[in-house]
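User: Sequence in, structure out. Go.
Assistant: Echoing your sequence, followed by the C-alpha cells.
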Amino acid sequence: MQHPASGESWLARPPRTAERRLRPWLTDPASLTARIRMRCGMFGVRVLRQSAGALTPDERRLLGLRAGERALLREVLLIADGRPVVFARSVLAQREQRGGWLRLWRGIGSRPLGAALFSDPRIRRQPLACARIGAADARYHLARRALAGAATLPPALWARRSVFRLHGRSLLVSEFFLPAILGLPDDPL
C-alpha cells in the first residue's frame, strides 16, 4: 500500500532488496523484545516519550482516524548491550483509551511493551507489514533525534508494524531497525 504523503510502501513481506540478515527481524511474528533479549547480554528500554500527540497520515489511515484526531504515543529505544537497536513507536487512539489498553499503557513505565502484549492471551496480533522509511517520513527524524548522535543513520531504515487488538480496540506498534541490530548474532546466545 503506497502512501504518497510519506513516500513509503508498507508490504506484507520484505522485497528481495532487503538485506538478507534483516529479513528475519522484519518477518518474525513473535515478540521482538524476546528475540533481542535472546541475542544480547543486557537488554533495556529507554522511554523517550509517552504523551498525547499527532499521528502521521499513514498511522491515521491504518487506525481509521480523521485528520486532527489525537492519540497517546509511546516512543522508546530498545537497547542491546548498551547499543540502541530499535526505535519503536506505539499509538493508542484517544477513542481506544478504555479498559485493558489504558491499564496496560498507564502501568507499563520503562518495561518493554512487547512483554506485556505477548503475555496476555486476549491480545491478538494482526499481520505484520514492513517498509523502508526515509527522510521524507517524520519517524525517520524521530529515530535520528533519539540517537542523539550516538550513531549515523543510513538514508533509509527498514521498519515493521502491526496492529494489536484487545476487545475490538486497536493499538499500533511500529518498530524501526537501527544499524546496530545487524551487530547482534543471528542465533540466540
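User: And one key feature?
Assistant: The mean pLDDT is 90.
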